[in-house]
Amino acid sequence: MTSRPDPQMRLDHLGLVSRQLEPLLSGAVGLGFQPTRPEELMAAGPTGPVPLEQSSAHLVFGNTYVELTAVRSHSPAHHLAPWLARREGLLILAFGTEDLAEARRRSLEAGYSPGPVAGASRRVTYGVRAGEARFEWFMLDSESTPEALVCFVRHLTPEVVFQSEVQQHPNGARDIEGVVLVTDQPLTLAGRYAGLTGGQLTGSEREARVVLESGWLEFRSPESWAALTGHAPAFGGPGLAGFSVLADREGVDQAGLPCRVEFAAQRREFARCYPSHP
Question: pLDDT per residue over 60-113, tens digit each?
Fold first, then answer.
């Protein structure tokens, strides 16, 4: 695809999913991030909020964030159950848009099965605009996206989520610039995401990239990932392997950022930072 990326589509947030929250929090702090205080997540029910048996903290940046989430529910009906049954780790890839109807239409056109648009909320206790953060979102079916829960989000209260009090990190990180997916078929999977998001596709059978209006997706073969990081992926099959963050110069001097942050699923913790541009 050579057209300009869809101006409605951007990288919104990623989710690190585990059964225990503490290893995620301590790993994030160890890399110089400052997580928010954990809060319970709620789904919008017919008579009010419904607990999801899931608590989350967040690494909030300028226009993106990383959700650190622990799922207590073992119900197969939980929206993360299909991916948690396979592994823990980077399991949520969320795109932001102001037009969910157009995103659903594009999803259907690309051959996916999008679920219904639903409401969600979480309590925010930080900053001067503490209150309820509200969202509308839909997700794609797990059979079509074994690599992660892929969803599209519309923020109804962005001023509550993105507050300056929680956007300052000791390592200087200020935004997610991209996410890395590992797959046996980088160019094929990248092509599907280009159709799904309207992004620009470039690359080869070994490495490919989809550039959005804000953010990028990088697709690497297991061999390419091993050449980049020095070891094989920590999981089998397609999946999210790491993300890249932008950082202020002071943070770069202190912590070696910008970097790509890898998550070691087998240890349920952040593994390390490695250079963003080797």
Answer: 999 999 999 999 999 999 999 999 999 888 899 999 999 999 999 999 999 999
Residue 2 dihedral angles phi and psi, to the nearest 5°: -120, 0
Backbone CA torsion sign across 149, 150, 154, 155 = positive
**Hey, what CATH class is 10-166 in?**
alpha beta
Q: Are the beta carbons of 56 and 123 closer than 8 angstroms?
A: no
Contact 78/72 with Cβ under 8 angstroms? no
Helices and strands of the chain, counted as H and E runs: 7, 15
> The domain at 173-275 falls in which architecture?
Roll (3.10)
Which residues fall within 8 angstroms of residue 44, CB to CB, at 6 or more apart?
Answer: 50, 118, 119, 120, 121
Neighbours of 205 (CB within 10 A): 10
Side-by-side strand order, sheet with 239-247: 200-203, 207-211, 216-220, 173-182, 239-247, 259-264, 269-275
What is the biggest distance separating any 2 CA atoms in the chain, rounded to whole angstroms? 52
Q: Which residue has the tokens 């797959």?
A: 183
Q: Where in the chain is the domain with CATH 3.10.180.10?
A: 10-166, 173-275
The Cα–Cα gap between 145 and 239 comes to 9
